[in-house]
Design a protein that fits this description.
Helices cover 41% and strands 18% of the residues. The protein has three domains: 250 residues, Aldehyde Dehydrogenase, Chain A, domain 1 (3-Layer(aba) Sandwich), CATH 3.40.605.10; 187 residues, 3-Layer(aba) Sandwich (Aldehyde Dehydrogenase, Chain A, domain 2), CATH 3.40.309; 249 residues, 3-Layer(aba) Sandwich (Aldehyde Dehydrogenase, Chain A, domain 1). The protein has 779 residues and is α/β, with parallel strands linked by helices.
Amino acid sequence: MPSIGEIMESMEYGPSTEDAGAVRDWLAARGSFGHFIAGRFTKPGETFATRDPSTGVELAQISQGTERDVAKAVRAARRAARGWGAMAGHDRARFLYAIARTIQKRERFLSVLETLDNGKPIRESRDIDVPLVVRHFYHHAGWAEIAASEFPGHAPLGVCGQIIPWNFPLLMLAWKVAPALAAGNTVVLKPAEFTPLTALAFAEICAHVGLPAGVVNIVTGDGETGAALVAAPVDKIAFTGSTEVGRGIARALAGTGRKLTLELGGKSPFVVMADADLDAAVEGVVDSIWFNQGQVCCAGSRILVAESVAERFETLLRRRMEKLRVGPPLDKSTDIGAIVDPVQKDRILSILAEATGAGAELVGGAARQGCFIEPGYLKNIAPANPGIRQEIFGPIATLSTFRTPDEAVDLANNTVYGLAASVWSESATVATDLAGRVKAGVVWVNCANVFDASAPFGGVRDSGYGREGGREGMLDYLAAPAVDILRDPPPAAISPAPQGQAGDGEGIDRTVKLYIGGAQKRPDGGASYLAQDELIPIGSRKDIRNAVEAAQAGLGKWQGLGGHGRAQVLYFLAENLALRRSEFAGYASGDEVEAAIRRCFFYAGFADKFDGASIAAKPGHLTHVQHEPHGVMGVVAPNAAPLAALMALLIPAIAMGNAVVAVPSQDQPMAALTLAQVLACSDVPAGVVNIVTGPREDLGRALAGHDGVNAIWQVGQGETRLAIERAAAETLIPVWSPEPRDWTGPAAQGRGFLRAAVRTKTIWLPFGALPAGTGSAAY
């Protein structure tokens, strides 16, 4: 053992192990765990072992949930839903507060249990995860108290199925359970197979505070248990996990009308500009990718460094990496703990082998005995290398360089994911410019992995859709105000007109044309069908492709106008609609034309007023939640009310800065094609609105399957809705399916349409001198 003098010279420090005696006693007393259903634990059934990943020692036996167990839990939740949903918000708030206080009182116990089960360092569990769990329940106690006034007319969804991963077992539980309960829903939660213990400890807390039986139910098990929950008659599924599983869930829920939020994989960029504080950026890498073993979906695992400072940055990075301590997770001196399971360790090593086999150089990253991997990074790595394309989910980053800010943005966006990003620059102008241009749901400026219950979190593209946290997270657990649902008549079958019918005998083409890129276009293939005594073009997949390309080309100019500029165009469109209302005679009623004019005025008023917000999250941070347009939207209009319905969908979408490819009423398309003529003379830039007529289901499926489309709105039931949502599941495009309604009345406009027309981006910007403990590692 070194002397005190030697320790003062070397500044080495010895082990400081957290006592796990109370947790081990708790585990020994229980032995095997059943499920938590209807307020009590069931008798254990067939079980499997959960193990301490740092030692491989068994911790407990966990019941493998069956389809029958899931059904029993869903029934219990359904029975409890009526009373819990009808309970006064104040009473729900008191339960959430009681949960928060009880977790606070058991913070040390829960931190040790989490570290034993997950393998992360005790400092992570104790100082970051569990305090944020408490924060979520406190925050959502507040939402429960004020929900009736803040969300008038909204109602609980009912029973929510929730599936969480193994990287943040208790935090992900809080992230999902707290808003669900605050909104008046009941829950059936399936924790990860590897890490169920803190969920079961949470179940004891629910019983301890007297939460009504059935409000929270926990069923443990593997992927088959999760699949049974997805198939069960619940009203929502909230899933955090891999992109492929998320895609399968979206496919399973297609056409069911059940709500879905997905928080999926990530390969987040960590952009270091030439003027960045390099020492701070290096600490950001440590916080983002290494302190948590890289087992976090939003870790900044793709480090992109300005070429002019890359050599200095790498020197600092390597020096810091070599000082990190890999070891027992319960040691308070440990920086990097254990990988959650040998299966995950093998997966990480397999990807590293692929990456180095494809030419990358691995610095560090050595495998140690047991479930340990040293921190490391891949350098000299090509953009197509598996190491830079795949989510490694381990303590391994990639290191690449860029020369210009534009190249940095291109590299940052060169991924199928869009969960988070981190930008480092001492210039506020440079940092905020990049933050706005990077495609991600969350962007941290000069910090990394900062979270708060008040700040929405979620991704875009293959990182999923929906938000957790803040107002947006609450809305994702609430049903919109009810409307009187009207039946939308199914369209008649399309019979292509004979080719010779397209002319009038003198070589003049009588077929009405598509509207693509601000001009009339003949359909690909030239086919048409007879509707409203006109030959209507039958659009094809190629026409959809051309329309999407035109929409993408028109986006820049349209968004560049800003809200005020778009409002002027919408007012002018309303003026022209009023002047040319006679042209719609026979194609749409006078009430529909008047409704279309009102829609233009209503959303012109909102174009520069549907604001984001700066929220009170962590001290020393400006946390801005901004609304961003999706980009290119597909709109599949209902068959009825051919003008009013189309305008009810079209105008809010373009008011928020989107470009639209619209498929109008199949039986009554002439109102939309007449509208195209009005659009052309109303200063709507080319490509902002495109109209493709023909079979709604086929065209909707083509839109949903196009990876250049960022969101779909469709008003259709039965096979049409099923076909579109199945196609969208493959591309992970969010689909909004508002119910058919009176499209000329007040139920056809409002904030619900505006919210569906945007997604949120949360930007974190630290400022001033940060108080101790609120730096980049403050989750």
